[in-house]
């Protein structure tokens, strides 16, 4: 489906010369004199190469038809990461390069959004927040309670996050998956 370049947003998938690209950033520039343009940074899905394109804001760009659905994570093996669609029970294998650094968040039964094109997974969206357990943390240094100080902690999935002083080993916490920041103590 053709769309004007100025309508492209982060996460959109475009088809340029038969290759799929996922939009990383899209900015519209309106100079005082001259034609407004849209600057788009993209990543080629096939090999991960980053590309930067500039179009006139009114130019037509081919937007790929992408199917986005919820999937449940099942397990990981030599083939890749296995997900199941909860309604039809269809299973799909996702390659490690699509999952990327988010693999540390995957737990059995976790619900994620997968974007597929021609039944091939092209991107994955993790939940905004996940609950993890702290395995080890440094002891509290006396006198650090006046300001909002944080201390490093190691989680069960191997992540290193900064947590408030009152968090100790064995505590379950909620972290933000985008910036790995502490959100709150888990309520379970």
Low-confidence spans: none
Number of helices: 1
> What's the multimeric state?
single chain
What would you call the structural class?
A: mainly beta
Q: Using the 3D structure, state the CATH architecture of the largest domain.
A: Roll
Q: Strand order, main sheet: write it out.
A: 9-8-7-10-11
Mean pLDDT: 87
The global form is flat
Roughly what fraction of the amino acids lie in strands?
over 45%
Estimated helix fraction: under 10%
- Domain module count: 3
Largest sheet geometry: 5 strands, antiparallel
Q: Which CATH class of the largest domain?
A: Mainly Beta
Q: Give the topology string: H per helix, E per strand.
A: EEEEEEEEEHEEEEEEE
* Spatial extent as radius of gyration: 21 Å
Distance between the termini: 45 Å
Query: Total strand count, please?
Result: 16
**CATH topology description of the largest domain:** SH3 type barrels
